[in-house]
Amino acid sequence: MAGLRAWWRNRHSPEPGGWEDRRRADERATPDRIADCADRQLVRLRGTIESLTVQPRETANWLEASLVDGTGTVTLIWMGRHEIPGIEVGRDMSVEGRISIVDGERRIYNPYYTLR
After folding, report:
1. 23 domain-assigned
2. 32, 41, 42 from 51: Cα distances, Å
3. Domain that holds residue 99
4. What one-character DSSP code corresponds to residue 110?
5. CB burial class (10 A; 0-12, 13-18, 19+) of residue 11?
6. How far apart, in whole angstroms, are the C-alpha atoms of residue 69 and residue 46?
7. Does residue 93 lie within any of the structural domains?
8. Is residue 63 situated within a structural domain?
9. CA distance 80 to 87
10. What's the pLDDT tens digit per position in 69-106?
11. Residue 111 lies in a domain
12. How far is residue 38 from each of residues 100, 102, 114, measured CA to CA in Å?
């Protein structure tokens, strides 16, 4: 029963080693290079939006942005969105998320982002 009480008290606490810990880490840390990112890796990237497209889906549109950093390109995908204020071609931004590599293309679904 004590284990259940401890879980209940801490259920909204960030996971150790999770995004909150990573965000609290030195914000000036060098971002990961897109070309070096492996499948399923948690990454922090910095780059420029090269293109934006809206992909129609059966239930909802997906906003896709190509982020480049000089070493490679990653596609950022926001499901259910057709626009996000501030996200535009030429905009510098930082993103955090889990890389997924599908058919050789790097993607991050619903990334946490900061506009620069």
Report:
1. no
2. 21, 24, 23
3. 30-115
4. S
5. exposed
6. 7
7. yes
8. yes
9. 15
10. 999 999 999 999 989 999 999 999 999 999 999 999 99
11. yes
12. 8, 11, 22
For position 74, which CATH number holds? 2.40.50.140
Average pLDDT along the chain: 86
Interatomic CA distance for residues 64 and 31, integer angstroms: 21
Q: Which DSSP state fits 93?
A: E
Mean pLDDT of 3-15: 65
Short-list 58, 63, 108, CA closest to 87: 63
- Per the structure, the count of domains in the chain is 1
Is the sign of the CA dihedral 83, 85, 90, 96 positive or negative? negative
Do 10 and 2 form a contact (C-beta atoms < 8 A)? no
Q: For the chain, first and last CA: distance in Å?
A: 48
**Structure tokens, 116:** 């620069």
